[in-house]
Amino acid sequence: MFKKATKSQIKIRLAVSGASGSGKTYSALAIAQHLGDNIALIDSERGSASRYADRFMFNTCELNDHHPARYIEAIKAAESMNFDVIIIDSLSHAWFSELELAGGRFDGWKNVRPLERKLIDAMIGSSSHIIATMRSKTEWIMEEYTAKDGKTKQSPKKIGTAPIQSSGIEYEFDLAGELDYNHILTISKSRCPELSDKTFLNPGKEIADTLKAWIGQPQQPPTIVSGLQTITEPQAKRLWAIAKNELQLSESDVRSVLAGFQLEKTTDIPVQKYDAVIQSMRDYGDKF
């Protein structure tokens, strides 16, 4: 019935909130690329994440319907394709949908709360790391500064305050932080002692490495074949998941694609040819 508690199966649950323009999507991708090899991004922001396709390697699923059930379907789809990290950008749109479903009536929430709970459970129970971005309410404050003439003056400054989301949502995550317009992430809630109350300018690798150390995730050394770095085991698993689940390709079909690259097995694929092999599989599937 009982067994020794370990961190071996723990997956990170990270929430990043901030006002529009604070860098939530970029920061989520910057952290995610150091948490895992394969990133899925659920995009409810009209494809805005694709602007960073030249900086990060990730796959997107654009949501036009923001019903919580659509988010759950996208999370499950990403899990079935063995993505290491799932970014939900933005979770706030699910909240807007819930408000609409409730219809502004107190009794309307009796049907909405179970939907909200199912979405939270899908994130918490995911087999992938989860990074969720949330919009913050925007307010203006007057900030003092010293002008060139030495006089103290005031100027308006836009800031983000509480996330636009159900109250207390941050307690569902291992780590929660707020981004400001200087791209500084302030950790407001953390189960990882090393990150409590810390701030990070342009968050990315440092946070990811600290989180991986906290959960005991091993650092997998790259395999070198003929002087070339090959893809990792998770990347190979994702490739097979795409082939079987998305493209309906058989094992012999995949072998045929690999033969075109003079490769025998997926773990021999050089990192530089990973995307090209996947594209060739898609082209192969279209032909047949």
Structure description:
The strands form two sheets. Strands 1, 2, 3, 4, 5, 6, 7, 8 and 9 form a nine-stranded mixed sheet that branches. A two-stranded antiparallel sheet has the order 10-11. The longest helix has 16 residues, at 109-124. The N and C termini lie far apart (50 Å). It has two domains: 13-215, Rossmann fold (3-Layer(aba) Sandwich), CATH 3.40.50; 224-287, no CATH class. 34% of the residues are buried. The chain is globular. It has helices spanning 24-35, 68-80, 92-102, 109-124, 205-215, 233-246, 251-259, 274-287; strands at 13-18, 39-43, 59-62, 85-89, 129-146, 152-163, 175-179, 184-190, 199-201, 224-225, 228-229. It has eight helices and eleven strands. The protein has 288 residues and is α/β, with parallel strands linked by helices.
Provide a quick synopsis of the model.
The chain is of the alpha/beta class and 288 residues long.
